[in-house]
Amino acid sequence: MSQTVTTATIIRDKADKISSIKVFVTGENINKQYEIKIGGQFMLESPHERFEGLRYRMVRVEGFEEIPAGYCIRVFHIEAQKELTVGLEELKSIFKWSSQ
Fold first, then answer.
1. What kind and span of H or E run contains 92?
2. What is residue 36's three-state secondary structure?
């Protein structure tokens, strides 16, 4: 079984604000890159139980936040009309899950 590595890089603008987050998923048969920007959308495909009932639906990126545990993004679940926060580790797992 091949190992898949997922990394995330915080991109800052000249004013030192987070402008985007780049997520890289690499493995033996995979090499994908995703860029998360405010206003962008992605499919919420996640193995995390807290997203149960909200999976496989589009979310829109509303903003980025620095929290004590690192960074998170605020997303708006379009179908459920609900705002959620997604931690950086959760974000990496979402794109690793969807890339396989």
1. helix 88-99
2. strand
Parallel, antiparallel or unpaired: strands 70-77 and 82-87? antiparallel
For the entire predicted model, the pTM comes to 0.87
21: nearest Cα among 8, 33, 31, 32 = 8
Could you give the CA distance from residue 18 to residue 46 in angstroms, rounded to a whole number? 24
Using one digit for the tens of pLDDT, what is the confidence trace for 40-91? 999 988 878 888 888 888 999 999 998 888 899 999 998 999 999 999 999 9
Measured CA distances, 84 to 54, 71, 80 (Å): 10, 14, 10
DSSP 8-class letter at 29: S
- In whole angstroms, give the CA distance from residue 18 to residue 48: 25
